């Protein structure tokens, strides 16, 4: 099992950052390698990814969701095995720290080599930087789900 932890400060209120993160179908707009996400229920998403020529499909279940605080998930079916949490920390009225922690199991030689070379860490850092640009340029979320999953 491998781990990655990254964080970034974004220039929007905590509720704006959190609300945007609950819009899973918009992830392809700032996450490289994510082709499509389908929200199948309040707690189930279906992901289609293609990273460095490796195509994967998997389902992820939201295991915990607390508005303006955290979203946790784990994969439940498909070709990827991972679990993680993203947390939102109010810095002031207009700034939020977004922290992402993820555990994943590299599958096969390509994944193992990519993990050892730091590919997942760089990918995660880049995705957070693109999230920052996406939400700051918009200044508001594209939507939001305020329900709780505990």
Q: Low-confidence segments, ≥5 residues, pLDDT <50? A: none
Number of helices: 3
- Rg from C-alpha positions? 15 Å
Strand order of the largest sheet: 1-7-6-5-4-3-2
Task: Walk me through what this model shows.
The structure is a single chain. The protein has 150 residues and is α+β, with helices and mostly antiparallel strands. It has helices at residues 14-21, 108-116, 119-138; strands at 2-10, 34-39, 44-51, 54-66, 70-78, 82-92, 95-104. The chain has a seven-stranded antiparallel beta sheet, covered by helices on one side. The two termini are 25 Å apart. The mean pLDDT is 92.
Produce the secondary structure layout:
Layout: E1 2-10, H1 14-21, E2 34-39, E3 44-51, E4 54-66, E5 70-78, E6 82-92, E7 95-104, H2 108-116, H3 119-138
Antiparallel strand pairs: 1-7, 2-3, 3-4, 4-5, 5-6, 6-7
Brief account:
With 150 residues, this protein is of the alpha+beta class. It is built from 3 helices and 7 strands.
Keywords:
7-stranded antiparallel sheet, 3 helices, 25% helix, 150 residues, 44% strand
């Amino acid at each position: 099992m491998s781990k990655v932890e990254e964080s970034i400060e974004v220039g929007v209120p905590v509720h704006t950052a959190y609300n945007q993160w609950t819009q899973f179908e918009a992830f392809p707009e700032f996450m490289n390698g994510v082709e499509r996400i389908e929200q199948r229920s309040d707690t189930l998403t279906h992901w289609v990814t293609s990273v460095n020529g490796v195509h994967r499909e998997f389902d992820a279940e939201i295991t915990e969701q607390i508005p303006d605080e955290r979203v946790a998930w784990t994969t439940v079916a498909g070709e990827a095995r991972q679990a993680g949490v993203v947390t939102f920390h109010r810095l002031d009225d207009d700034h939020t720290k977004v922290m992402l922690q993820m555990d994943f199991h590299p599958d096969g030689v390509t994944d193992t080599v990519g993990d050892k070379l730091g590919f997942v860490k760089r990918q995660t850092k880049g995705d957070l930087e693109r999230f920052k640009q996406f939400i700051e340029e918009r200044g508001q979320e594209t939507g939001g789900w305020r329900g709780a999953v505990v």
